[in-house]
Specification:
By secondary structure, this protein is α+β, with helices and mostly antiparallel strands. The protein has helices at about 45-65, 70, 105-125, 135-145, 145-150, 155-165, 175, 190-195, 220-225, 240-245, 300-310, 315-325, 365-385, 405-415, 430-440, 445-455, 465-480; strands spanning about 5-10, 15-20, 25-30, 45, 70-80, 85, 95-100, 155, 170, 180-185, 190, 205-210, 215, 230-240, 255-260, 265-270, 280-285, 290-295, 335, 355, 395-400, 420-425, 455-460. The strands form seven sheets. Strands 17-18-16-15-21-22-23 form a seven-stranded mixed beta sheet, sandwiched between helices. A six-stranded mixed beta sheet has the order 3-2-1-5-14-13. Helix 3 (about 105-125) packs across helix 4 (about 135-145), helix 10 (about 240-245) crosses helix 15 and helix 11 (about 300-310) packs antiparallel against helix 13 (about 365-385).
Length: about 475
């Protein structure tokens, strides 16, 4: 029997999921990381931590399931996007990786907007943001020149793990998209942009498809873990792209909602128009398929923030019960969830959260419900600004994140999105998408067939009130 592993290299931990060829999830392991933030706006990580975390998680997996030593056929990766790793000619990291949530690059972003803003929209299909990789490269070139002079290759976090395992340096299309120095349509590095900023194409990793094999485990790695067979290392992809592959099995009809600390709307689409720049537009893991994605920075965190500061003695279940005492539109109280500024579609770090319309009639339940509604409306706003064509509009959404534990909130999402909301049996997120990549690359099965083996729908929340009726009630309450 063949075994497969999907690995998700996140910002705070690494997670592995083990499955067999029959679609049975056998187990999972994880290991935690630390983030280095010794200056304002700086967020870094040592790549050595990723190797240590991988070693801990993989060693535990082999110990729990010793048959893995003989039967592991393939492993694939999901990884945090945009983070910058620099290595020298000996393959050693030159400095700490600069993470996606590092915001030191505001000056570099403004420079890119001024000098190549239109070019980025036309070729990279995105606007420059502090989180993306190119501004980080420009910052290193300006403020850490010695590191850049030593740089042989740059890469993203999962690519460094793949290099450790195989000795080969590659990236793939979904992660390359997030660098904003990659031609989305022609699937190659943007040599015009690289030349303008003095980045040599030789410093860029070669680009593969997400389901291509980068190589096999090096002999020293096999010996370290006691493996007896050749393990194929499949590229995988960026975290949200992998997450979608683990959640969506019909890209034409389904979209993805991820509601954790932040919120994400993800829709497969190959259509762009003048609305480009209101959302992220990247290559997906599926060859020939792109996707649109938007982010609300403070989603479930908004509710956590409220609880911690104003209702710390109550749990989330108690807060939800109070929200149930409110009504549609929270009796005219609106919440704008911009505690961290906002990403999509405004890209404005100065935006602020607020409760709007507070009156003496409002009770705690109104505040809690208004937060739930505000987050759902914010993500609906992101979705609408994607300007999807009729053929791209989604009939239903599959949802992941902590919100799946709250049926009341799920109903609010269903009503505001005018859509059925589906919850899945297995919510392993990006690790499951990486696992599907590993199976796809080494079998004759298609994505849908693999997905059906590994997952199924657990519950469907049907909409009760369409958005238009929802809005009529809210507007009526606002006039009170």
């Amino acid at each position: 029997m063949s075994y497969y592993i999907g690995v998700d290299l996140g910002t705070s931990s690494i997670k592995m999921v083990l499955a067999n060829e029959h679609g049975e999830i056998l187990g999972s392991t994880n290991s935690q990381f630390t983030i280095i933030s010794d200056k304002i706006n700086h967020s870094e990580q040592s790549p050595k931590e990723w190797l240590y975390g991988f070693d801990q998680a993989f060693t535990e997996m082999v110990k729990k399931y010793p048959e893995t030593k003989k039967q592991l056929k393939a492993i694939s990766f999901s990884g945090q996007m945009h983070s910058l790793v620099l290595i020298d000619k000996n393959g050693h990291p030159i400095r700490n990786a600069i993470l996606w949530n590092d915001t030191r690059t505001t000056d570099q972003v403004q420079k890119l907007k001024t000098e190549v803003g239109q070019h980025l929209l036309e070729i990279e299909k995105n606007i420059p943001l502090e989180g993306f990789t190119l501004p980080k490269v420009l910052w290193v070139m300006e403020y850490d020149k010695k590191s850049w002079e030593k740089t042989w290759k740059f890469m993203m976090p999962k690519d460094y793990l793949i290099y450790y395992l195989t000795g080969q340096i590659y990236t793939e299309r979904s992660d390359a998209s997030g660098t904003i120095m990659y031609d989305i349509e022609n699937h190659c590095w943007d040599t015009e942009l690289l030349s303008k900023y003095g980045i040599m194409e030789e410093q860029c990793p070669e680009i593969l498809n997400s389901t291509e094999t980068a190589g096999v485990f090096q002999e020293k790695i096999k010996e370290k873990y006691g493996l007896t067979n050749n393990v194929q290392v499949v590229m995988g992809g960026a975290d949200n792209a992998c997450g979608a592959l683990g959640i969506i099995d019909d890209k034409e009809s389904q979209g993805m909602l991820s509601v954790g600390t932040s919120g994400v709307v993800f829709c497969y689409s190959n259509h762009t128009d003048e609305s480009i720049g209101n959302y992220h537009y990247f290559n997906s893991l599926i060859e020939g398929q792109n996707y649109k994605m938007g982010v609300t920075l403070s989603a479930a965190y908004s509710l956590e923030w409220y609880k911690e500061n104003f209702s710390s003695a109550e749990n989330f279940s108690e807060l939800t019960n109070q929200a149930k005492q409110s009504s549609i539109g929270s009796n005219g109280l609106l919440f704008l969830p911009y505690l961290f500024g906002e990403r999509s579609p405004y890209y404005n770090s100065n935006m602020a959260a607020e409760f709007f319309g507070i009156k003496a009639i409002h009770k705690k339940g109104d505040f809690v419900r208004s937060i739930m509604e505000g987050i759902a409306f914010s993500l609906r706003n992101v979705y609408e600004r994607m300007e999807l064509t009729d053929s791209d509009i989604k009939d239903k959404f599959r949802i992941t994140g902590g919100v799946v534990k709250n049926p009341y909130w799920l109903q609010i999402f269903a009503d505001i999105f005018n859509s059925d909301i589906e919850i899945l049996e297995i919510d392993e997120g990006p690790a499951l998408g990486a696992l599907i990549c590993a199976v796809y690359a080494t079998t004759n099965k298609n994505y849908g067939e693999i997905w059906q083996e590994f997952n199924q729908i657990k519950k469907c929340i049907s909409l009760i009130r369409k958005l238009r009726k929802y809005m009529i009630v809210i507007l009526k309450n606002l006039r009170v």
